[in-house]
Amino acid sequence: MLGKLAIRNVKRSAKDYIIYLITIIICFSLIFALNLISTSDVVMQLSKGLDMFQYIMYFINAIVLGVICFLINYTTKFIFEKRSKEFGMYSLLGIKKRKINKMFLLESMLLGFIAFIVSMPIGFAVSQFLSLFIVKILELPQAIFIALNLKSVILLAVYFSLIYLLVLWRAGRRIKKSSINDLLNLEKQNEMKLTKSTKHRTVLFLISMAVGIAALVWWNVKFKPSTIEDASIFTVILGCFVLLIISIYGIMISVGDFILSIVLNNKKIKYNKDNLFIARTFSAKAKTMGFVFGTLSMIITLAIFFLNISGLNKGLYDYQIDSNSPFDIAVTDEREHLKDYLEVIQEDYTIKDDFIYEVYKDKTATFLNTAPFADYKDEENKFDPVVKLSDYNILMELRGKDTVSLKKDEYIIVSDLRFKDDMKNYNINNITLSNGTKLKQKDFITTGYWARLSNEYYTLIVPDEVVYNLEINESHLVVNTLEKTNVELKEKIKTKLPQYFVVVNEEGEETTEYYNTVVKGELIESTNTMTMILSTICIYMAFIFIASVGTIIAIQSLSDSSKYKYRYKVLSNLGVKDDAIYKIIRKQLLILFGIPIIYPIIINFCLITSINNIYKIILANNTVYLSYFIGSVGQFLLIYAVYYIATYFSFKRNIKEV
Amino acid sequence: MQVLKIENLKKYYGVNANITKAVNGISFGVSEGEFVAIMGASGSGKTTLLNCISTIDIPTSGFITIGDKEITKIKEDELADFRKDNLGFIFQDFNLLDTMTIEENIALTLIINKEDIINIDKKVEEIAAKLGISDILKKFPYEVSGGQKQRCACARALINNPKVILADEPTGALDSKSSRMLLETMNQMNKELQATILMVTHDSFSASFCERVLFLKDGKIFNEIMKGEKTRKEFFDEIIDMLTLLGGDLGNVR
Question: Least CB-CB distance to B112: which of A1, A92, A97?
């Protein structure tokens, strides 16, 4: 009978907890899918770097489990409170608490067990989908099949039991501790209030804000290229995180009252449209939900942080490809050899663009002579590389970037950010080329840089007419193809034109070097698998975090919607139209969903701006991180919005029900 | 024989200056097979008194004896069993479980305490027949009327043969016709099944079905009247007079 009753109760509450159920199914599915992949032999054999994947996954899963545990515990507590009157009834009818407890456990287990069972096939499907993704990223020749393995199932079962043991132990204690009277009235109680006086809260708010600012400033000071390699950096990271956690909790506990005191003390705001109703509804929440809001904010901070890291990582990857091989093929050789390369390429590929240009030597070597690495170069190689403006502009056009213009006596220097910082210190503006032309610096740019532009760290771009009498160092061929290039093309060039790869070194020995030819496909293939792993893990964690937060707020709001249905009924009776009521609900939910995300977004913006101090030298430019930041926040809001919308519609349905 | 005995019962809420004496020294007894009503204005202490008797609330001082058990001395652990064996409850808002059929609702306590299934069925059918709800046993609470729900609650309260049935405003959520039917049912329970009923009510019409009415005011018994040989109508008038005397909120009463 207990079992039957539990099944019925689950059925009945299914409608209320569908968002919760879907969330934990997705969470368990993702855990299962990543377990399958990280324990799959097929995947492990793909690359050495993937060994680490498995160990990272254990660590990551521990964090993820913590968050899911919080979610399930919170929801179970919530369901318990909602059902407490019913449990009180059972107790009144003479059913012992032990039995009531058993029934509730059975019910919670059943709900969890459904998620556990359903998540296995879904997780399996997701893992196959992810395997396609792996195949594509690693450009593997054939698809891989990720088999079900017992280890993953056991691992999932262990995770599942751990969570439920903990959650149900807590629920059991809750039932044991409460008297019938508590049970009968629990539904009417709010969550615990943490601080009593409004004045204390304002002080708390200001202190928390100060702590947060201190942490962010400390972080910013320490995150400089000059200090990043200090051993103390880990202490700094840890310290900042602790301070930020304190600050987040402090602010979230006090912010509700802080805003309210502003709204309620100002009659103009207070009596403007529906503000009063919304403010009062929110105040009941804010006063009592501070701690939960704090936890939610912390999870959101982490979620956005992980998305940011994933974004930066992707940016790093894109920049590496773009700065090493913006064209599908780039060859450096003598001019008469270049047509042979083209012929080999044409055998298998359709050529979209091709272009040949020269790099000239400026033997004055004004820049080189100031650089620390000048001494390592032999006499013949002591020069500044020079490229004609028209050639450079054609290259820029082919890359889809902006062209530049120069006056007769101007030059531009192109380099990457790392060298830009160094070279700025040399303070060179006016130069005289070896043919006597005097030029002054118009600009120092990084946008047009790529490693193979001149095979040097920097390149001078000069007006076409000033290169007379300059010796040609080498010729360059760049090619874009319609098809995507792959590693076989490089192999083919190597075997078809072996004579071009023979290099005579300083001792007069002949060696074979292949660095003069770069094929984009090869580069992509050899790019670190860690990029993929890191991105996948970050997105995976972020998703579970966001889903947990969304679910908790959704459940909170939905239970309110049935609990305080009468409030909306009163509004309706007072003559407020349905549309206006829906607008109020939208606003209310927006506040509830919005409050916990504002501070995390600010924190993350500061954190990533500081991190960019380091990353900017290996990213495309100074401000590109902003696009990753906006992208991360966008991704976050997208998933979050799904929860918002789902909550809104369920809310509407709940208050419409009679 | 007195099945329920209350001696100098006090229940205070709050501390120091803010103290509320919800029940302030009440003593009375209910004999086996009696049908007693407790009346009084809002805040007179009716519900607190009932909560104390039903072991939901713990009194500040005084004694409550049901059967031969002094309930303030029963351990928390054994209270559930005690309630199951000795008390039946009828609430204003029915408190039926909407996931279960009427039949299952009635049998719930027996089922969960693992009584013999054949025995359960027999008991349920017997009681349902007496209360006239045999034909709705297979239905769910949301499929039947308020009056039927309340009769189901009565059946649930009766099924254990409790020493006392405690009813808290049983007609509060019913229309006058259903109220009348319910009260006649309770009267019948009292007469035919010898059920002892203690009913808390606002409603003088409900109270007029009882044999004795206790009037509470500010946590104390203000007066007590008996039906004796009077007709129900006469008793009703007497109750109204008493309430007028009580200075209670007449608006609530009629």
Answer: A1
- Same domain assignment for residues A9 and A153: yes
Whether A93 and chain B come into contact, CB under 8 Å, resolves to yes
Cβ-Cβ contacts under 8 Å, B57 against chain A: 181
In a domain, A172, yes or no: yes
Query: What residues of chain B lie within 8 A of the CB of A179, using their CB?
Result: 76
Provide the pLDDT for residue B250.
Answer: 47
Both A201 and A179 in a single domain? no
Same domain, residue pair A185 and A196: no
Q: A11 in contact with B at a CB cutoff of 8 Å? A: yes
Identify the bridge partners of residue B10 per DSSP, sorted by sequence position.
B24, B61
CA distances from B64 to B7, B82, B133 (A): 7, 13, 34
Which residue among A189, A210, A228 closes a domain? A189
Shortest Cα distance from A288 to chain B (angstroms)?
23
A85 lies in which domain range?
Answer: 1-189
pLDDT at B253 over 50: no
**Distance separating alpha carbons of residues B71 and B75, to the nearest angstrom:** 9
Which of residues B75 and B35 earns the better pLDDT score? B35
Together in a domain, A352 and A286: no
Put simply, the answer to whether B80 touches A184 (Cβ < 8 Å) is no
Give the phi and the psi of residue A377 in degrees, each rounded to 5.
-90, 140
Q: Is A181 on the interface with B (CB under 8 A)?
A: yes
Of A9, A94, A181, the CB nearest to B83: A94
Residue A578 lies in a domain: no
Quick check: B252 pLDDT over 50?
A: no
Q: List all residues 6 or more positions away from B2 whose beta carbon is below 8 Å from its beta carbon.
A: B29, B30, B31, B32
More confident residue, A187 or A431: A431
Whether B111 and chain A come into contact, CB under 8 Å, resolves to yes
| A86–B97 C-beta distance less than 8 A | yes
Burial classification of residue B154, based on how many CB atoms lie within 10 Å of its CB (0-12 exposed, 13-18 middle, 19 or more buried): buried
- Are A358 and A460 found together in one domain? yes
Are A270 and A366 contained in the same domain? no
Q: What integer pLDDT is reported at residue A526 of this predicted model? A: 66
Highest mean pLDDT among A187-196, A259-268, A511-520: A511-520
Q: How many domains does the structure of chain A reveal? A: 3
User: Which region among A433-447, A497-511, B65-79 has the lowest average model confidence (pLDDT)?
Assistant: A497-511
Number of DSSP helices (H) and strands (E) in chain B, helices first = 9, 10
Judged against a pLDDT cut of 60, whether residue A61 lies above it is answered with yes
Cα–Cα dist B206/B232, whole Å: 10
Work out the minimum CA distance from B241 to partner chain A, whole angstroms. 36
CB contact under 8 A, B99 and A8: yes
**Per-residue tokens: A175:** 């039932």
Do A41 and A179 have their domain in common? yes
User: In this structure, are A320 and A333 located in the same domain?
Assistant: no
Residues of B whose CB is below 8 A from A92: 54, 56, 83, 89
**Beta strands B212-217 and B197-201, pairing class:** unpaired
What share of chain A in percent tops pLDDT 70?
90
Residue A431 lies in a domain: yes
Residues A551 and A68: beta-carbon distance below 8 Å: no
Q: Given pLDDT bands bounded at 50, 70 and 90, which one contains residue A602?
A: very high
Of residues A82 and A141, more confidently modeled: A82
| A93 to B99: CB separation less than 8 angstroms, yes or no | no
User: Taking CB atoms and an 8 Å cutoff, what residues of chain A touch B112?
Assistant: 1-2, 90, 95, 99
Residue A493 lies in a domain: no
- Residue where the block lists tokens 């529906």: A274
Rounded Cα distance between A584 and A590, Å, is: 10
pLDDT of residue A227: 64
Provide the shortest C-alpha distance from residue B226 to chain A (in Å): 31
The reported pLDDT for the residue numbered A226 is 67
Q: Which residues of B touch A93 (CB under 8 A)?
A: 83-84, 89, 108-109, 156
Contact with chain B for residue A91, Cβ under 8 A: yes
